[in-house]
Amino acid sequence: MTFIARLLSKTKPVLVPGKLLVSELWFEVPLDHSKPDGKKIKLFARTATKYERPVVPLPADDKSWQKPYLLYLQGGPGFGNPAPQDSTLSTYMLDRGYELLLLDYRGVGFSCPVSASTLKEVGGPKEQAEYLKHFRADNIVRDSEAVRKCLTKDYPPEKQKWSIFGQSFGGMTALTYLSFHPAGLREAFITGGLVALDKGPEEVYSITYPRVLERNKDYYAKYPQDIAAVKEVAAKIIELGGEDGIPIPAGRLTVPRLMTIGLNFGMDGGIDLVHNMILKMKADLDQFGVFTKASLSKFNQMIDWDSAPIYILLHEPCWCYGPGVAGKWAAERVGKSLDTFQWLQADWAGPESLKEDEPLCFAGEMTYPFLLDTCEDLSGLKETAQILAEFDEWPSLYDEAQLQENKVPVYAAIYNDMYVDPDTSRVTARKVKGIKTWETNVHYHGAVRQKPQDVFRELLNLRDDTID
After folding, report:
1. Please, which pLDDT band fits residue 278 given cuts at 50, 70 and 90?
2. Which of 85, 106, 186, 333 has its CA 20 to 30 A from that of 372?
3. What's the rounded Cα separation, in Å, for the pair 292 and 297?
4. Quick one: 141 and 223 in the same domain?
5. What is the pTM of this model?
6. pLDDT greater than 80 at residue 64
7. Where in this chain does the record put each AB hydrolase-1 domain (predicted)?
8. Which residue out of 417, 421, 425, 443 is catalytically annotated?
9. What's the pLDDT score for residue 331?
């Protein structure tokens, strides 16, 4: 299969804060790379390089000065890239001789963004589901290869390969890249993304739910007063809104939706973030007997599911590693089988059914069908989501045989991770020939943003250490 991207436009480099020269690029690629003459979509990217003033200016058509590209593969799925001046890669990697490329994946950021309104233009639920089947990591990699070939076609051969840096879901995408198109890669960095190559959503959640429970224990050990506070907030939500919940700026707040803010437990400072939200809501009840608009707005901003519909629609499918595997709302099914997530049960009697010292446990990085009932924009996508949840003919995301023969240098960070089980990461690392790993139990999933000085130091040490 030949991957073709057409460069539609590229702006003249502009100097931005941080002494970066930034250009904005638009590309056109096929929705389906196997049908290059079919429907086209647009992709957006920014490049960034350090501002330098050479003593002797080079001719504009001289490509010998071109620095090799470093493509950043964002986490998610469902989120666009930050501006280059806001990316930690600009701070730590541009001095290493790279030109950074921040390519928004198809469907996110500025690249044909997926939303309830844009999906209506595609058609009904069946057409929407067919469209979204092209938005997983396999096609993100095809887009990337098409863009690489487009950008480097006139470069010296030694600079046509590029490096990739994958965080979280971006690390999963990097493994797909290494599996099917390693010829385009010079090296790969992976942080928090060494996932299982042969485990579907149900197996993944059976492993990660216990890690979520560990973080709940850490939360309530640090803030024992929240055992009562969380239950009081939950009881008030039921009192004011029943099963339907209470109105918030973009949907409705129910007890199950309240419990999804445990997603933050996987990040540095996440426990404190959740506590402060509960503290604010509890303070409302103590002073006014209801939740204030300010608190409900803050809650809505804490995890705005509507702003990233791909996260809900394709989160479980991104774990479907090949044919015969379907999501079928695995997170809900596994959670219901555990005694500690009572709020997932249809016949749950509410927080008053719990013992005085028994906490109400938060969820982690899981997506649930009830989000399609409680989030304003997502409510129109229920049928589309169900079609995707039942689909089990996904193409393969990984080629273990290729990874076992891998020749691309790979440098990976394995964290004390609630989202990606470190034991699983070690198993996957053993399946990638030549990989070098740095393991730490004092950094969490978002360390590349929150503790970047440590992460980049260790990854670059792995790259630069040539002692056999």
Report:
1. very high
2. 106
3. 9
4. no
5. 0.95
6. no
7. 70-207
8. 417
9. 98
Catalytic residue among 144, 168, 179, 295: 168
- Residue 417 annotated among the catalytic residues of the structure: yes
Cis amide prior to 256 (ω within 30 degrees): no
Q: CA 195, CA 218: separation in Å to the nearest integer?
A: 24
Q: Can you tell me whether residue 216 is helix, strand or coil?
A: helix
Angle at 326 between CA 330 and CA 199, to 5 degrees: 75
Instruction: Report the distance separating Cα 381 and Cα 76, nearest Å.
Output: 19
Facing residues of 437 across strands? 412
| Choice among 134, 275, 315, 445 that is catalytic | 445
The answer to whether residues 333 and 440 belong to one domain is no
Catalytic: 392?
no
Domain region containing 351:
201-390
71, with CB counted inside 10 A (0-12, 13-18, 19+), is buried
pLDDT reported for residue 252 = 95
Q: Is the pLDDT of residue 166 over 90?
A: yes
In whole angstroms, give the CA distance from residue 283 to residue 446.
30
Q: Last residue of a domain, which of 390, 411, 440? A: 390
64 is catalytic: no
The answer to whether residues 347 and 215 touch, using CB atoms and an 8 Å cutoff, is no
| 59 found inside a domain | no
278 lies in the same domain as 404? no
Per DSSP, helices labelled H in 112-253 are 116-120, 125-132, 137-152, 169-180, 201-222, 226-241
